[in-house]
Amino acid sequence: FARIEKGEVILYNFHISPYEFGNIHNVDPIRPRKLLLHKKEILRLYAKTQVKGHALIPLRVYFRKGFAKIELAVAKGKRKYDKRETLKRKEARREIERALRRKRRG
């Protein structure tokens, strides 16, 4: 996820593997990373994330001219009842798979 702090966009919990041929000075692969954005982009994202329950989420990472680019989106978190519903679906799917496996075995 990304967060806007002091007018800067910082990406957290994003793993970037260290340079394989680097020396001892390779940095932590999960350290917070500062993203480069135009001030207008930062202000627009800040306004959108001020609504309760909205967050900046990285959608995809790609490379262009030697730079890693990250596509960000403003996303809304799940509600408690949505989480419960998702858990019920997962549990039902697991039960069906277990029953099918038992039936195949004999």
| Sheet of most strands | 3 strands, antiparallel
Strand order of the largest sheet: 1-2-3
Order of helices and strands: EEEHEEH
Shape from CA axes?
flat
Low-confidence stretches: none
Measured by DSSP, the beta-strand proportion falls in 25-35%
Mean pLDDT, all residues: 86
* Total DSSP helices: 2
For the secondary structure, the number of strands is: 5
Helix content: 25-40%
The number of domains is: 1
Distance linking N and C termini:
47 Å
**Estimated radius of gyration:** 20 Å
How does the helix and strand content classify structurally? alpha+beta
Outline:
This is SsrA-binding protein. This protein is of the alpha+beta class and 106 residues long. The chain is built from two helices and five strands, in the order βββαββα.
Characterise this structure.
The strands form two sheets. Strands 1-2-3 form a three-stranded antiparallel β-sheet, with helices on one face. The chain has a two-stranded antiparallel sheet with strand order 4-5. It has two helices and five strands. The chain has 106 residues and is α+β, with helices and mostly antiparallel strands. It has one domain (2-77). The termini are far apart. It is flat. The model has no long low-confidence stretch (mean pLDDT 86). The longest helix has 26 residues, at 80-105. Pfam families: SmpB (PF01668). This is SsrA-binding protein. Keywords: Cytoplasm, RNA-binding.
